[in-house]
């Protein structure tokens, strides 16, 4: 094994330098920071208790919009705060700056509510990064609140300094949010790209009589894992990897929602209509890829991706 020739103190110095020069290294360390777990567990339990499954929680996840609501909402405080700091730098009016700071602080409420709802249904490594992201943004909101109070008391210089510090902290928090979404895939669809993986045209799956009635089973089509559900002569097929975080839908259970057979994911409870993959309940927001099926005269099931 190759040994480092550097003195331990110099190695530590190099490590700190690497952390500062490559924030991704710091974010990866946070992913593995088990010391955060007690806080993650207790906060996650509280959020799950406060947000039982239902229309309100679905709205916080962004189910009605077809994508998570949190990324859109965080633009409001960040946009307002950036504008406020720019006005401070270029001698904008105090009134306009104070309005921007106040609107920014106010809009952290819906941003935090949607973020907490999404965060409570993530894997533990994602939750650790999400916790640090939330701490940074809470700190930033507190600094901007302080800035507002200082400006109201006539201490404009202090208000400006607090705003600049708040924006710096919010930017650090935004970096961790980006790591969570773009590197760890929180909020993106984890369902497979079925149209790219399955090829064109109809594909033979299996015989109709090989499928049990009203039971979820998994079948393979090339690289694709499929969830197959037969009701008499009707066969529904969805991609088996849940669009939320890739959970195995064939291990879920069948429920009836709005008169339609639906599958509930065993990991975080996302619920999809088995006939076409429509999201009925979050945390998933992306439709589950589905397939058109037909039964041939010889009793074979054929399928192709639903356009
Ligand atoms: S993986 Fe989270 S609900 Fe399916």
What does this structure look like?
With 307 residues, the protein is α+β, with helices and mostly antiparallel strands. 49% of the residues lie in helices and 17% in strands. The chain has helices spanning 8-21, 23-31, 37-50, 55-61, 70-73, 75-89, 94-106, 108-119, 124-152, 156-183, 194-197, and strands at 203-207, 216-221, 224-231, 234-239, 253-257, 260-264, 271-273, 279-281, 290-295, 300-305. The strands form two sheets. It has a six-stranded antiparallel beta sheet with strand order 1-10-9-4-3-2. Helix 1 packs across helix 2, helix 6 (75-89) runs antiparallel to helix 7 (94-106) and helix 8 packs antiparallel against helix 9 (124-152). The longest helix has 29 residues, at 124-152. It binds FE2/S2 (inorganic) cluster. FE2/S2 (inorganic) cluster (FES) is lined by residues 242, 244-247, 265, 267-270, 283-284.
Average pLDDT, all residues: 91
User: What does the radius of gyration come to?
Assistant: 25 Å
Largest sheet: 6 strands, antiparallel
Percent of sequence in beta strands:
15-25%
Shape: elongated
Low-confidence stretches: 1-6
- Structural class designation: alpha+beta
Number of β-strand runs? 10
| Distinct ligands | FE2/S2 (inorganic) cluster
Total helical segments: 11
Q: Bin the helical content.
A: 40-55%
Sequence of secondary-structure elements: HHHHHHHHHHHEEEEEEEEEE
Cα separation of the termini: 54 Å
Strand order of the largest sheet: 1-10-9-4-3-2
């Amino acid at each position: 094994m190759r040994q480092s020739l550097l003195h331990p103190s110099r190695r530590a110095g190099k490590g700190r330098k690497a952390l500062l020069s490559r924030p991704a290294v710091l974010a990866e360390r946070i992913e593995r920071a088990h010391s955060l777990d007690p806080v993650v567990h207790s906060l996650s339990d509280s959020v799950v208790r406060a947000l039982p499954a239902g229309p309100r929680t679905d709205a916080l996840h962004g189910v009605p919009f077809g994508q998570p609501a949190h990324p859109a909402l965080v633009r409001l405080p960040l946009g307002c705060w950036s504008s406020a700091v720019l006005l401070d730098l270029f001698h904008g009016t105090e009134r306009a700056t104070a309005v921007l700071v106040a609107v920014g602080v106010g809009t952290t409420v819906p941003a935090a509510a949607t973020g907490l709802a999404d965060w409570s249904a993530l894997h533990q490594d994602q939750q650790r990064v999400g916790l640090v992201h939330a701490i940074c943004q809470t700190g930033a909101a507190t600094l901007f609140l302080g800035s507002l109070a200082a400006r109201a008391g006539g201490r404009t210089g202090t208000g400006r300094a607090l705003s600049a510090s708040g924006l710096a902290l919010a930017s650090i928090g935004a970096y961790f949010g980006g790591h969570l979404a773009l590197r760890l895939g929180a909020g993106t669809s984890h369902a497979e790209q079925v149209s790219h993986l399955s090829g064109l045209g109809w594909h033979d799956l299996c015989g109709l009589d090989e499928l049990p009635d009203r039971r979820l089973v998994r079948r393979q089509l090339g690289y694709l894992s499929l969830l197959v559900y037969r009701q008499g002569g009707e066969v529904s097929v969805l991609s088996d990897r849940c669009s939320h975080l890739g959970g195995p839908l064939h291990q879920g259970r069948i429920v009836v929602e709005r008169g339609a057979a639906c599958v509930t994911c065993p990991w975080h409870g996302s619920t999809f209509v088995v006939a076409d993959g429509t999201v009925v309940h979050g945390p998933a927001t992306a439709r589950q890829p589905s397939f058109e099926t037909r039964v041939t005269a010889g009793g074979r099931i054929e399928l192709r991706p639903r356009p």
